[in-house]
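Exercise 7. Given the encoded structure of a 124-residue chain, write a plausible sequence.
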């Protein structure tokens, strides 16, 4: 359960980041800490960090956590190419990981569903 003060802080940081005021990493950490679902924001702000090599390298081992979070957010937002790219980075770094493999399985199912839906739409 998110407290009123946590919600206020989350909304403040979200507004700040959305308006170019910085604090994307702090916002993403708070989203993770509070276990709230803000997939569109995690995707947008997470990618902004991952696509900036200086910001990405400053994360240390948290870089891999961010790749995982962005992959899941991308799946939620139907940005399957982004999800696939993130999972591929994780697979390369952790080739034997069952955790990474469990992220891949839902991605494959989403691809199949999209393919089937596309085929059905083409029939109409």
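Solution.
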């Amino acid at each position: 359960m998110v407290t009123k003060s946590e919600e206020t802080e989350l909304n403040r940081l979200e507004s700040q980041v959305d308006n170019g005021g910085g604090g994307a990493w702090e916002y993403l950490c708070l989203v993770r800490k509070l276990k709230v679902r803000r997939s569109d924001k995690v995707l947008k702000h997470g990618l902004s960090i991952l696509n900036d090599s200086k910001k990405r390298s400053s994360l240390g081992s948290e870089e891999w956590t961010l790749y995982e979070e962005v992959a899941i957010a991308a799946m939620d937002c139907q940005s399957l190419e982004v999800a696939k790219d993130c999972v591929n980075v994780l697979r390369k770094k952790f080739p034997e990981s069952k955790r990474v493999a469990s992220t891949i399985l839902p991605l494959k199912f989403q691809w199949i569903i999209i393919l089937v839906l596309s085929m059905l739409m083409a029939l109409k």
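Remark. The chain has one domain: 4-123. Students should compare their own answers with the one above.
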